[in-house]
Amino acid sequence: MKAAAVVVGLFLLFGGFTVRAETVEELYNEQLEASGAEELIAALPEETQALLEKLGLNTLEPVDLEAPHTETVLKQLISLAAEALRGPLSTAGMVLATVLLYAWVEGMRQTLRSEETSAVFGTVCALAVCGSLLLPLTACVKAVGEAMASVGVFMASFVPVYAGVLLSSGHSATALSFQSVVLYVSQLLSWLAGGVITPLLTIALALGVTGSVTPHVRLGGAGKLIGKTAVWILTLGMLLFTGLLSLQSFTGAAADNVGVRVMKFSIASFVPVVGGSLSEMFSTVRGCLQLLKTALGGFGAAASALIVLPPLLRCFGWQLLLAVCRMATDLFELRVMSEILEAAHGTVKSLIGILCACGAFLIIAVTVVSTAIGG
Q1: Does residue 363 carry a pLDDT above 80?
Q2: SS3 for the chain, per residue?
Q3: In this predicted model, which residue has the larger pLDDT, 153 or 264?
Q4: What is the pLDDT of residue 310?
Q5: Is position 16 within any domain?
Q6: Residue 17 falls within a domain, yes or no?
Q7: Position 217 confidence tier, pLDDT thresholds 50, 70, 90
Q8: Tell me, what's the pLDDT at 42?
Q9: 193 and 156 in contact (C-beta within 8 Å)?
Q10: Higher pLDDT among residues 236 and 282, named by residue
Q11: Domain for residue 195, yes or no?
């Protein structure tokens, strides 16, 4: 009888939730409330909360977390893309007007009295293009840094809740590895956003643009190197932590699964009379926790992706329009302006790589854990 009491005590202690609900839905709602998962929405930026509400993903109910209709997703994507293209379109219009004006003057070079006049006008046009690009692109870099910081804040709030659900469902080793790795990455993202990535990319943009208008000082190579360094730092860090999480999760999941089977067998074998019922109750609680874990993981992945989606679409808009402007400069053989646009284009590509790495990490981490524990 003492052994039976110990087993029941362990079940109630590590099960994480007591079985008071009469139905599976009530049990799920009870576990959802006890986990504190509903408070995660408050940790998201207001823009992301609005997107989740429009997509119908602003709750953790299993029915509400079903995949939204394709029409709804496409409608929201078109709306976000239109909003993201407003700034780049106006800037691209000014850049193209400057390019056409410079090309017209270059075509009229024979009528000018001296080559110096043409060179001065070309420098003025190049500076006008720089002025048109620097401020909006710097704001884009800042938006990417804010998105990185927001992902870090959300991950710091998400990790304890998700790890608590894993622990309550009997996956203690997996919960420990998930919490230690992902929580560290959340702190790393918050630090990199303000202390490394944003300053490096701003410097890279400034060096690239400045080097394009100074023929005797070639700074474009230094700008490209700094931009690539920022991307590689973040990408290699994410790959390292993803590999570490995968190794720890698959190793810990094996021990966790054995422990769960032992507990279920002990309840059924050593508790007299009601052992079978308690074992089935244990399976029901774990089943609801598995459902909660899946819903929570899906919510975390969707929230992480939606945080980076608006600045990512904005960067794609910049990439497209800068490519069009650069095509125009190449058409009229305007080397200086082409180099300016190339430097800006390289910075935008770095921003896209950084956003993809940030948005994908939590999705990959949740997928790795779910695969490791088999659900």
Answers
A1: yes
A2: CHHHHHHHHHHHHHCCCCCCCCCHHHHHHHHHHHHCHHHHHHHCCHHHHHHHHHHCCCCCCCCCCCCCCHHHHHHHHHHHHHHHHHHHHHHHHHHHHHHHHHHHHHHCHHHCCCHHHHHHHHHHHHHHHHHHHHHHHHHHHHHHHHHHHHHHHHHHHHHHHHHHHHHHCCCHHHHHHHHHHHHHHHHHHHHHHHHHHHHHHHHHHHHHHHHHHCCCCCCHHHHHHHHHHHHHHHHHHHHHHHHHHHHHHHHHHHHHHHHHHHHHHHHHHHCCCCHHHHHHHHHHHHHHHHHHHHHHHHHHHHHHHHHHHHHHHHHHHHHHHHHHHHHHHHHCCCHHHHHHHHHHHHHHHHHHHHHHHHHHHHHHHHHHHHHHHCC
A3: 153
A4: 92
A5: no
A6: no
A7: low
A8: 83
A9: no
A10: 236
A11: yes
Q: How many domains does the chain have?
A: 1
Q: How far is CA 265 from CA 19, 76, 246, 259, in A?
A: 19, 50, 29, 10
Q: Is pLDDT at 338 greater than 90 in this prediction?
A: no
| Cβ contact 141:347 at 8 Å | yes
pLDDT at 297 over 60: yes
The answer to whether residue 114 scores a pLDDT higher than 70 is: no
Domain boundaries, position 123:
70-373
Let me know if residue 56 belongs to a domain: no
For residue 340, which of 354, 351, 353, 325 has the smallest C-alpha distance?
Answer: 325
Give 49-68 pLDDT, tens digit per residue: 888 888 877 777 665 555 56
